Amino acid sequence: MSDVAGVLLFALSKSASGLSADARLSLSQQAIMLAPDFPPLYFNLARAHLANDIWAIGAAFRALADGLKAYTRHLPAFFAFMANTSVRLSTAFVLCFAMFSLFVFVRYLRLFAHDVRDVLPARDTALSSALLASTTQNVGGVVLSRFFDLIGFMAIGVLYFLPFLCGLGIVSTLLFSLLLIAPYMKRRELVASVIACVLVMAESPLAIVAEVPRSLSQSRAFLLWQCLHERCSEGDLARLPEDDPMFNIASSLVSIQKSPDNEEVLATAFSKLGLASKDDEVSLGIVGNMGILLALLRCQEGKPDKEALQGATSAFERILQKYPENEGALRGLAVSATLAGDQSRAETMFQRLVQVTRERDLSFLPKIRTVLARQDVCAHHREVVSFLEMPEVETLSVYAKNLSFKELSGLVPKQGFLFGSLMFQALPFVVFIVILILPLINQVSKRRSIARVCPRCGELTCRQCSIIATGFDYCPRCIEEQVRSAFSGSRDIGMASDMRVYSVMVMKRYAGIAMAFVPGAKEVLDGRTGTGLLMMFMFAMSATYVMLAQDPYDSVSFAGGGGRELSLLPPIVMVLVFVWSVVDGLVHGEG
Hints:
Number of domains: 3
Shape: elongated
Number of strands: 2
Largest sheet: 2 strands, antiparallel
Distance between the termini: 60 Å
Low-confidence stretches: 125-137, 488-504, 558-563
Strand order of the largest sheet: 1-2
Radius of gyration: 36 Å
Strand content: under 5%
Mean pLDDT: 73
């Protein structure tokens, strides 16, 4: 009855604002009776408890725990939950990695552009022209240098988007951008980059998990689960091969659903079950339940048929030999013992049932006793059978035998744009190679003369440019300041210093305002990559849950567009991350 319960749950969520807290709690408890194995019903009950009494934390927690346990009994809901979580996680991981890699690249763009320009011609001419007076003979060198500056910027753009231009997608482009700036990274930035790459590495297994419900809905595993636990139509039965071990069980259930009061149909179902495994607890449970129903249909002078009851009792006993705490078998044995007049054994079974039952509400026990105590119990056979339940089936083994996970290739939103023609299964290996190469490039580049930022004045330079400009491997700006101080007054030096400080403050102010729109961006640009990556991850997670508020897969039909609505937590987390980013930027404004 998961489909009916799912519709009721959707109706409850839509009409929650028009219901009183007591009415919502009562309806939520009644909904669980329709499908006690359907996890979303328990989560809805937990919310109803808190809506009725904000201090009912214990009851809400128990309902939540029951919902988590129900996933082990309702594998389609479990797979749907895992798929919905995987879709959101994969989207959040890509978003977080994209933001982090982009701003790390922006942080070192000046250094990378400087080294790219050093490779191109006319670098020496530009530096010499900047030191000499602007005479006519130097104009040609300046123009040529500016031309190659433009070529350098174009080369940077081509290098950055090279993987995307080759059809490998935007994720490969972002991975390649980390390799381009690896020589300039500090240790903490290198560690943060590796962590960000690990997020991308998880994309492939998450995408495979996200594809499970789509493949499952077309598989024999899902059809078998429906036949064993929910409803099974003749059309679904026709899709199952007759040589399947579970076919006879499913076929008998279809017959019983069509004509539950027909003795001939029950007899035919018995013959089909005889072809199934005699040691299978599923077929034994059905035999026991059908035996009780047959005994009630074959009543003579108000007494159930003893032969049918003996067959039912034997089936339930064989189940309990293998699974002593099987609730379905205990229920069936208690009912059959009561109908057979063995009150002592029936009482023992009822006591054992109380100890192992999953239900918090034990009101079903007096209801069973009341119905069984009637003189005309045979006329109320439908009520008796309604208290029986299918013994728990090891549904995981059913799925494992009937679902081919080898056919799953992985599925993520915008897969072509993100990964291009790159084989999705090869993504973890590509990312792993990038993780290995990143520290290698970083260590090798320390032996070379690469661009750097002067720690004293913040000027961008490199060894080659410093030697060309001053003849020494020393920052040209620092030498200029020292020479100028010998010929300039203190007022001139102070004005120049104030102008530089003012310009830096203006730039930081505008950068801080701009970066407030992307939490963690300013932290990454300031070199505090750990804090920045954490902010970006929290922002990406909350933003993903806001964008994908509706479950991609429904827990009942695996179709798109579940009944879930946006909760308050993701928007609250987004606001808190924005506030954290702004406050952190103000506190470390001089970083």
